[in-house]
Amino acid sequence: MIHLSDTAQSVLTRSHKRRVMVESWRGGKLLAASVPVDTATEEVDRSRRVPQRLTLTVPRRVQGVSWAPTTDTHPLAANGQWLRVQLGIEVGNGITEWFQRGWFVIHSSNADGDTVTVEAVGLLHLIDEARFVTPFQPTGTFSTTLRQLLEPAMTVIIDGALNDRAVPASMNWEEDRLGAVGELLDAWPAASRVTEHGFLHVYPATTPTTADLNLSDTGPDATIIRSTGGSTRENVFNTVVARGTNSDGAQVQGVAYDTTGPKAIGGPFNPLPVPFYFPSPLLTTIDQVNQAAQTVLDRKRQEAGREFQVEMVPHPGLQDGDTVSITTDEVSGLLCTVQALTLPYTADGGSQLLTVRSLT
């Protein structure tokens, strides 16, 4: 979660003014210090390859300045223009606390009548569209390979707690650069998040156990307006099989079983294993396939957790992957992770919507 001061946190549950500031950059050069914004909404969904989406509406003309993207270097053109978004919360006495929400790449912008609509996407789009021209055979370690896959399009910050081992000489990726990043992280095993400052932060794949934010529909500081629940068998697994090849060319395999959750193997969900297969040449030892299997299983369990749709008072610091505690008349202090969110930047944008899944 993006850090907010205690003062800013305290005003979120009562009437307050919100502000948004959008800058346009291209190639490290500031094109516009303040894009005029009528409406703005950020949508994030971890199930997408590029989770972040941003939609802006901008007046076509303001004080004689045209915001229609009529030139390649216009601040709202889609030729490498990036948007830096900062949000502000008025904390009293005319003081506004500003913080950075994120960086986005303009994907499209279209003028229609008196309005320009801008669609922007997260920085991982740069990696998703940059498929390999020729097969990529990495050399070196996991960290150097990750940097080769991402830089200079994105800056990588790697947690020192990760074990940086060598990449097998037989490793080869054909086309999908972003898919290669995902395979590398699962095999490490590691998790990642694009920070509000535009870096890819890579860290050990561990499950959070404490809440970043407590959400409740009762009491004087209630933030939940409405919540609903859901459950499905679709794309649910209780077993992960990770496979690799050792230095002698023999297959190595590790298996992780869900033995405690509601979809545990041998239980009412299915007495037989429901497997997900994760093969990767990056895995060369029994220990590596076992760790990878457990990491992927933890993520699959999280993706299959009880789902809650939450409508709430907007919290501008909340991000996907954050852990929240949900308290309603149906659940009490249930730890969940944010899988998707819709955040209106402007006060007239309405409530914030979350999709969260339980960790238990």
Mean pLDDT: 93
Note the run of SSEs as H and E: HEEEEEEEEEHHEHEEEEEEEHEEEE
Largest sheet descriptor: 13 strands, mixed
Rough outline: globular
Question: Count of DSSP E strands?
Answer: 21
The residue fraction in helices comes out at 10-25%
| pLDDT < 50 runs, ≥5 residues | none
Q: How far apart are the termini?
A: 21 Å
How much of the sequence is in beta strands? 35-45%
Radius of gyration: 22 Å
Provide a count of the helices. Answer: 5
Protein model, in words:
This protein has 360 residues and is mainly β. Helix content is 14%, strand content 40%. It contains five helices and 21 strands. The strands form four sheets. Strands 1, 2, 3, 4, 7, 8, 9, 13, 14, 18, 19, 20 and 21 form a 13-stranded mixed β-sheet that branches. A three-stranded mixed β-sheet has the order 10-12-11, covered by helices on one side. Helix 3 (142-150) packs antiparallel against helix 4 (177-187). It starts with 5 loop residues before the first helix and ends with a strand. The model has no long low-confidence stretch (mean pLDDT 93).
Report a brief summary of the structure:
With 360 residues, the chain is mainly beta.
